[in-house]
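Lecture notes, unit on protein representations.

Consider one protein chain, 142 amino acids long.
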Amino acid sequence: MAEIGQQQDIQYLAMQHRSYQQQAQSIQQQLNVVRVSIDECKKAINTLDELPGESELESLIPIGSGSFLNARVMNNDKVVVDIGAGFRVEKSVNGAKEILNKRCDNLQKIMENMTQSLSKIAEKLQSIESLIAQQQSGQPPQ
């Protein structure tokens, strides 16, 4: 009879383990999206930093699938920035960089929180693995 209870305990622990693994995979995928967003944010800031002081410049504009248009930027002292919910505002270069820096900082904080959550899940997974090993070897849990 005790063996049946032990098997049920192991099955329950195995289900918990799978659940935590799925949570970890989900957080890892979300972390990857946040990393890409941070990279895009930094890339935009670097681009704004490198804008020449001239009022007109020539550039290549990506149109997708590795294709570009030659274009002339007539007014490079104003930037249109996404502020969320599909809204965009026109800002000075410095104003745009300020918004982008705040966005980047917020994304960094989100990434730190997600990394902490992932660490906690890893600890729980390790604990469950230890419990399963103990129960399979017949040792009492500690």
